[in-house]
Amino acid sequence: MTVFIASLFLPKTIHFTLPGTPPPGAAAEKKQPGKPAPAEKQTSLFQAPNITPPITPVDDKTRDHLFTNEDGLRVQIPQVEPAADGFRAPADRSSPTWGGRPDQPMSRANSPPPPSLIEKSRLLQQKAKELGRQGVTQPRSLTRSDSHDRVFANANWKVVNADQGNGGLRNAAEAAARECKLGDYMWVGTLGMPTDALQGTQQLQDISDRLYTEHDMLTVLCSDKDFDGHYSHFCKQILWPVFHYQIPDNPKSKAYEDHSWKYYVNVNQAFADKIIKNWKRGDVIWVHDYHLLLVPGMIRRKLPDAKIGFFLHVAFPSSEVFRCLAVRKQLLEGMVGANLIGFQIHEYTRHFLQTCSRLLSAEATPDGLQLEDRFVDVINMPIGIDPVSLNQHRQEVEVKKWLDIMRERYAGKKLIVARDKLDHVRGVRQKLLSYELFLNANPEWRNNTVLIQVALSTSEKSELDATVSDIVTRVNSSWANLAYQPVVYLKQDIDYAQYLALLSIADALMITSQREGMNLTSHEFLYCQDGKFSEKKHGSLILSEFTGTSSLFGGNELSVNPWDYRACANAIKKALEMGDEEKEQRWTKLYEAVNHHTGSHWFTEFMSRLDIVYDEQHRRDQTSVPRLSMHSLMQQYNRTERRLFILDFEGTLVSWGPVNKIIPVSPQRTLDVLNDLLLDERNTIYVMSGRRPEELDRLFRRVPNLGLIAENGCFLKDCGSTTWTEMADSDQIRSWKESVKPILNYYLERTPGAELEDRRCSLIFHYKSAEDYEAAQRQATDCASHINDACEEQRVHAIPLDGCVLVEPIDWTKTTAAQKIFADLRANMAPDEKHTSPVDFLMVIGDGREDEKVFKWANTLGEDGTVKEVVTVSLGNRNTEATATLAQGVSGVLMALQKLASIA
Ligand SMILES: O=P(O)(O)OC[C@H]1O[C@H](O[C@H]2O[C@H](CO)[C@@H](O)[C@H](O)[C@H]2O)[C@H](O)[C@@H](O)[C@@H]1O
């Protein structure tokens, strides 16, 4: 059995050594014409003249790119050279711009260059034109050449750790494997670099083969155009902002445009195809994150029995935001192809369930989603870090070196640190503005506080970069002097040793994300502050309340709303002025929370939950549930003396009729079968229905001695009785109806042709006869979710059904009625019989959603030995709890009951 872990980027990528280029690192020592010497590239952290920082690995990025155009427009992305072995990156690593490395091929995707580049190019072209008239060569356009392809196709290459992708996931998988909790596994992902240049070459085949045989990785290949459209456009410009609440109301949002949708589909299809091709029965597929939302559905269509998990690492927004996406239904349908869907925290799970019940008309339960024919389990399970490997790296010499440097450089200063991606959702701008406010308001801290902000590149094209630089300049020009700089702003990543040193020496970490799925940097910070390998700091964590992590920390962090600059400024002050005792208390609680939720725990828990829910769902699959055996049924019937039948009405004893139409009479055959069965005094029969008491009275007036359950369990009429017992609390019903009716009326007014049915204990919004059925369906799902949001505390829920929305109480159901019947039968037993069960044969037959819970209750009575013979029969085509199925519908039921009745 193999676990396929599908994530957009493989943990490995390829670096090429191009002919005529010095090996990586060599260029670092040489000053190149027109370029700053490597040492000059070091940013302001180490400007003190007496400090020589250790030489950090310098990537060959500082060299001229072999294939840049003569116009000099080179894409230079500062990157940290990935290590050749062992993962050495923060859990929340960054994903630098795809296709921007000089030691990897350039992309053939014709994505438009950013406006700034176009403008620059235009000016250069213009200038070149003028020069051209004087005989100077004109610049070539921004395209790769064939020679570029040839050089890469023949260059030497090596496999290195990728510096993009989800570090938290990789660390978690590594930790689980190290602890022997994960057997064979195989990563499935892209190479994280353009591959058109290598298309069809032996080299690309060799690369895929090497990754497969030596690293257990399946390479997904897609065209540069598909990848660029998928990642840089659909993922980064549509999904990422919307999932982080940058709603399309914003005029800059691209959420309405779906020109890149087809690329998203293509890349997802390439993943699905790769997995399908390699899948063997018994394998497990775990798909990760918002890049691959369609993959579970695509696989499910081809492999109906596959065990598929899906985990969303980023936030899932409120349904109000999600529904703005043009392709919202397709995305959800893709996700629900999984058997188990996981989110970081409860809030995202709730949003997802609400969104599905709204947009897919699926029934949301506390455990997941009941679709037409399947159940999908939905859970929240926060990811964590890998403390073991973190601690190993903390002990490295490099970390110690950086700690010494920083201790000396920042002696006597309080350090607030941060490392964030420079995109809007990370809230770097808000952080700097709050810090500025803090310095303005607290002169006593001006000379002795430093904010070190590491800002990572992002594919987001925005003016944020300039805005942030302006704020940094403003703060520094306001309060800096020869010996002091209030903000140290590094617009590049730092290597892992510096990162760990930074987290260890900090007095506070400040995270001001506007939204974030989790935020593992704060977990790593708490670990690095424990004093094990450097001084004990127990520094404060200033953490946005909009991160997933904040919901794990129970208020022991300094929780902030990043939009409230004043509160953030106060939090900084509080962090710096907090007494040691309080710091320690808070840190201890936070540390415990981090320890409790490790990456390895997350990984193995998800895997075992997937096993459990898969078995459970499979057990309930119609194809796994045996057909009702008449032979065994008759034997069970024959050997018992006290028999209880609980039979659903519509769809079971009579053909299904629309709920808003009355059924004039019960068919004679149904009445005959019930009467025949009741001739045997050992039989007790109850019919259960959603219909009102008076309707059932009329329908069954010719079956004396029949017990009835009306309005799905709110009313009960015992066998032989003439009166109904109201099970539900009428005051409670009255009260929720008062709240729900105005909501229903609001939607009714907007849905011509719809009508409202007011039952005793339930309300039904019917729209089968609406003038515009599709529009009515949308109103109905909105209406259901509105009621579920607004009336949760009143113990009522709205369920979207075929052509109607049923609003009914949560506390009285067919199951509670069945339990009452059973309890009453026991209560009526003779005192000397009370130690036995009131029935020795229990048969439940039904076809609907609400019958499933009655099956479950009955099965439990059989399993725990309370009732000797239990038979539960489902007629629907949904996954079922029943122990048997009957394909012949109503006539099959009547035939089976008739057979029993005929046994003397
Ligand atoms: O930028 P991308 O390549 O699109 O990847 C998205 C982000 O993925 C990782 O972060 C997400 O997962 C983390 C672990 O579960 C979670 O802590 C974080 O909140 C999520 O956003 C990665 O760490 C980020 O750098 C990527 O931007």
From TrEMBL:
NCBIfam families the UniProt entry points to: HAD-SF-IIB, T6PP
Annotated source species: Parathielavia appendiculata
Residue spans crossing the bilayer: none
Primary site of residence: cytoplasm
One Gene Ontology molecular-function label: enzyme regulator activity
Keyword tags: Cytoplasm, Phosphoprotein
Protein origin, superkingdom: Eukaryota
An annotated GO cellular component: alpha,alpha-trehalose-phosphate synthase complex (UDP-forming)
Location relative to the cell: Cytoplasm
Any one biological process term the GO annotation gives: trehalose biosynthetic process
Pfam families: Glyco_transf_20 (PF00982), Trehalose_PPase (PF02358)
Protein name per its UniProtKB record: Glycosyltransferase family 20 protein
SUPFAM superfamilies associated with the record: HAD-like, UDP-Glycosyltransferase/glycogen phosphorylase
Source organism phylogeny: Eukaryota, Fungi, Dikarya, Ascomycota, Pezizomycotina
InterPro entries: Glyco_trans_20, HAD-like_sf, HAD-SF_hydro_IIB, HAD_sf, Trehalose_PPase
Biased composition (Polar residues): 41-50
Family as reported in the entry's similarity comment: In the C-terminal section; belongs to the trehalose phosphatase family.
Region (Disordered): 20-61, 79-118
